[in-house]
Design brief:
The chain is α+β, with helices and mostly antiparallel strands and about 290 residues long. About 20% of the residues lie in helices and about 40% in strands.
């Protein structure tokens, strides 16, 4: 058919002309629909720094709230604590909370394109080892004898992560790490019995309490007691034996002396009555009996 319009292409391998409303147009419209779906609620994150936090009872702390949303509509920090906004930009706010006296949660939130996201942070309270009390008894001890070292750390929490170390100079004598998750302050006590050595007289004893809170968002807190000296002396060799021998010797001397005095006074009394000493009369009777 010459001069007329073609209903089919001249070759079976020649494609039809792509119109704006053909397959490519449908694909473009489908991709545009996917891209535009949910554009009113962009995905974003809310972040807090620090991520873990331990605060000494009664202290304050700075907290940063931030978001990945470039133009948030609103944001802030929700807490029962007294707070102050220190500084802010479009994507972050810096707050300070005051007088943290117990464990509490704070919530940071932002709204972006009508959608709100939030993140919470738990603030844990700790009571540091402000006092470390050391006691030695007895304070005067002989070499080779035992004595006791006691260390008390009052009003401390949490016990978990608390290590109490007994020191002789810089040398560790004994240490103990506590366990427990109690939130209320209580007393930690370590008692250790040991033997006195001659060199103990030249060193001071002390006690160190160390609280490691780094795994829970805190710091390494420590305190040391006042040093105390131990008086050590050398016991006399066989001191007890010497005392016993001395006492027995004195008693024996007193006994012999009393016997001799009784004998002498008895002879004098006999001589005044008979004119001769009793010993002489007894000696004469003994000689006569022997001759007979």
């Amino acid at each position: 058919m010459t001069g007329g319009s073609r209903l089919f292409p001249a070759s079976p391998w020649t494609p039809l002309e792509m119109s704006p409303f053909g397959g490519w147009g449908l694909l473009s419209a489908f991709l545009a629909l996917l891209c535009c779906t949910g554009s009113g609620e962009e995905a974003f994150e809310v972040r807090m720094w620090p991520e873990q936090l331990m605060v000494e009872s009664g202290e304050s702390q700075v907290i940063n709230c931030s978001t990945t949303c470039t133009q948030p509509n609103a944001g802030g920090l929700e807490t029962t604590l007294h707070k102050t906004l220190l500084e802010e930009q479009a994507q972050w706010k810096l707050y300070e909370v005051f007088n943290v006296s117990q464990d509490t949660d704070v919530i940071c939130h932002f709204t972006c394109s009508g959608k709100q996201e939030s993140r919470s942070l738990n603030i844990s309270v700790f009571y540091p080892p402000k006092q470390v009390l050391l006691k030695l008894w007895p304070t005067l001890v002989a070499v080779g004898r035992s004595f006791t070292i006691q260390c008390r750390v009052p009003s401390v929490a949490p016990l978990e992560g608390l290590t109490v170390t007994l020191l002789r100079g810089s040398e560790i004598v004994y240490n103990q790490t506590f366990v427990g998750t109690t939130l209320f302050p209580q007393e930690a006590m370590v008692t250790h019995n040991t033997t006195a050595h001659r060199e103990d007289d030249r060193h001071n004893f002390s006690c160190r309490a160390e609280m490691d809170l780094r795994s829970r968002g805190g710091d390494l807190v420590h305190s040391v007691s006042d040093p105390q000296a131990l008086n050590v002396y050398e016991p006399a060799q066989d001191n007890q034996t010497v005392i016993i021998i001395t006492v027995v010797s004195v008693l024996l001397f007193l006994f012999v002396t009393s016997v001799l005095l009784c004998f002498v006074f008895g002879q004098q009394w006999h001589q005044r009555r008979t004119g001769t000493y009793g010993v002489q009369a007894a000696w004469r009777r003994l000689r006569w009996a022997y001759r007979a």
